[in-house]
Amino acid sequence: MGNIVLFMHASLDGFAAGKNGEMRWIRVDEEIFDYVGERIAKTNTALYGRITFEMMEGYWPTAGDQPNASKHDKEHAAWYKSAHKVVLSNTLDQTAFTNTTVIGKDYATAIPQLKKETTGDILVFGSPTATHALLTENLIDECWLFVNPVLLGEGIPVFKGIKEQQSLKLMNTHVFSSGVVCLQHEVQR
């Protein structure tokens, strides 16, 4: 049975993106890519919201084939091509995509079934709207929050839609030379 593991960048004041979805403030580099890459390599399923999935589909299928592709681009593109993608969307047509399952309004019952059928964890990358939906139904099992040393003042919050208090257990921390801090928490049930 797989766990739902959230990977999300956050500002120090708790936002996943600026008020218009802007993410230029996020710090990423080879050190962070290598750290996350080790974890990603242990699974083969990713869950996205529609907007994030469309961004991923617009980049990763060919990113590793570009002449100037970085090590990260090559590795993640290969993983993306082979990974099973699950998308929370009420509008996407599943038949238009390879190795992709689209889950609509019935996500609250479909996700627990997906967890039962999946070997390894299911990684959620970004996708604030999908994350909020999963939080509402208490479906996230673990959070890897990459806290960036920046204050946005306003924007799209990381955590929203929580119906009741959820306790977390800190499992690991990692400080990167860029000043980003990864906080790995397990949801306590």
UniProtKB/TrEMBL annotation:
Pfam families: RibD_C. Residues 4-181 form the Bacterial bifunctional deaminase-reductase C-terminal domain. GO terms for molecular function: 5-amino-6-(5-phosphoribosylamino)uracil reductase activity. It comes from the Bacteria. One of its GO terms (biological process) is riboflavin biosynthetic process. This is Dihydrofolate reductase.
